[in-house]
Amino acid sequence: MGLTEAESLKLNAFFGTELPLWPFGFKLNNPIFAPVSERTILKLQLPTDPLWVKNVVESNIEEILTDHAFCEQKAASNAITLIVQNPNLSDLVQEMTALVQEEMDHFKRVHDIILERGYVLGRERKDNYVNELRKFIITGGRRADQLVDRLLFSAMIEARSCERFKVMSEHINDQQLAEFYRELMISEATHYSTFIRLAKKYGDGINVDKRWKEFLAYEAQVIQNYGKGETIHG
Ligand SMILES: [Fe+2]
Ligand SMILES: [Fe+2]
User: Fold this and answer.
1) Could you say which ligand is closest to the alpha carbon of residue 158?
2) 153 in a structural domain
3) Which of 76, 222, 213, 96 is nearest to 147 (CA)?
4) How many domains does one find in the chain?
5) Taking ligand 2, which is a single-atom ion, which protein residues have CB atoms under 5 Å away?
6) Ligand 1 (single-atom ion) residues, CB below 5 Å
7) Which structural domain range is residue 115 located in?
8) pLDDT per residue over 118-171, tens digit each?
9) pTM of the model
10) Are 227 and 168 in contact (CB under 8 A)?
11) Side-chain half-sphere CA neighbours of 151 within 13 A
């Protein structure tokens, strides 16, 4: 399923490029069509096997929706934490405020689908993927180092969520969800880009590209154990 012309234009405007675009090629050597400053650094190393959608997602829609709703809530909570920890960084506060609103809008839309289908939102599921990723964030040291790591951790979750939504939108046998996930993957791609931009803005001499590559290598190890369970990152 390709992007419509309007979506391509919207993404072109966002990414500031005339190149044909999609930020995730999923073939390992595909060029990455993000802004020049970001182009070299976005490369998820392991694509999700579409069989995960066929074998796991389609038979566990209620589970997936509950987990997905809480992914959106956690994305909003993470953005709120960033605001609380960095009130003096005005651009970050502005960007995170907009992100909180968008993530909670996603939460509501997932919740609406849950209700439409006669389900009730379950309790939050453990997200082992995110917990393992979090261990890579440095503790101690300079404040700027910690902030960059937190932003790159956030970017990584957005990037992987975007990839999962793309695979779901292309393979799920459910028209409503295929369209929904297609729309959300575009949104998560823009969030990824926001976090990378903020990491570079507030990186204060830190080599963000180099640190991102370290995150990618670590994520590639972590994700090997996932893509089998009935959660968004599972
Ligand atoms: Fe979202
Ligand atoms: Fe997001």
Assistant:
1) 2
2) yes
3) 96
4) 1
5) 75, 158, 188, 191
6) 72, 103, 106
7) 5-223
8) 999 999 988 999 999 999 999 998 999 999 999 999 999 999 999 999 999 999
9) 0.83
10) no
11) 29
